[in-house]
Amino acid sequence: MEKVSEGLANHMEAWFAIEQTDGKGQRSKNWQSNPGENITCSVVIRPQHSLQKNPFFFNAFIALVCRDFLSQQLKIDVKIKWPNDLFINDKKAGGILIENRFSGENWKWAIVGIGINVNQVEFPEQLKSATSLKKETNINYDPLTLAKLLHQDLIYSFETTISINETSVWERYNQHLYKKGEHCRFKIKGIETDATINLVNNNGLLVLTQNGKEIMHHSGEIEWIL
Length: 226
Known about the structure:
Layout: H1 2-5, E1 13-16, E2 39-45, H2 55-74, E3 79-81, E4 85-88, E5 91-103, E6 106-116, H3 133-137, H4 143-159, H5 166-175, E7 183-188, E8 191-200, E9 206-210, E10 213-217, E11 222-224
Antiparallel strand pairs: 1-2, 2-6, 3-4, 4-5, 5-6, 7-8, 7-11, 8-9, 9-10
């Protein structure tokens, strides 16, 4: 973010952190990662016109690239938990945090933070739903090598976005949507309730069926109870 502010950042430039002392997650939560064991990186991206329809469309595109990368590496299914977490076997393996920079109304930069648990096998008690590549496969990986491969996938994906099919992005995002079609429990505006997950619409809203009615929710007003 400092490089962007100073005008020294280049499109698709990436930084890899061997150790994070103040990692950020969604809703101002901390992202905890053991030093040297995981992917903790940031990629600076200048969003192209085809991805500027709305910020969540960009988010969905990034989440799909990361999901596809993990699925190819592990040879198992990986789900996207709305809005941008990566889940394997009902456990969280990674997360994406995107911070945008505007000049007036012009969307100039996106700083994409990616955290993926790679070799870490022990997690704090409050992260009991966490997993890692090693926990799922019993294989030890090189986090930096994986980060470089993921970075290459991101570069390739953005080089080909001139012909991106928006409908295909939403279809694939919903194809891999965590708990799609299942009955789940949420806390909505402070009240716990049950609902069925239908899909994520083109505006990035989660569409649930509650008491026989379809209701759309923003990410800031709803909390999963896992």
